[in-house]
Specification:
Structural class: mainly alpha
Number of strands: 0
Helix content: 55-70%
Strand content: under 5%
Order of helices and strands: HHHHHH
Distance between the termini: 30 Å
Length: 82
């Protein structure tokens, strides 16, 4: 089956891209922008509270979750175009 190029592109990917931008609170971006070596325990607890409840995150023990919160960084790899 052959599809035209116009049909192959949809605004769904743009919508998902913009949704992701909105879902990361500014305070979390600020914490994740810090060098992990200087991130405080309070920073890690805030990130932990944000991520708790996510299925992929909850698979780990709390000790591992907190270690992940200490190591996480925020990187934006996809450029969204309006």
């Amino acid at each position: 089956m052959h599809m035209s190029p116009a049909i192959l592109f949809s605004n769904i990917s743009l919508h998902l891209c913009l949704q992701t931008l909105v879902k990361v609170p500014p305070w979390a971006k600020e914490i994740l922008g810090k060098d992990p070596l200087v991130r405080t325990e309070a920073d890690c607890k805030k990130l932990h509270a944000l991520l708790r409840g996510m299925t992929s995150f909850d698979k780990f023990t709390q000790k591992i979750q907190l270690a992940m919160c200490k190591a996480f960084t925020y990187q934006w790899l996809v450029k969204c175009k309006n």
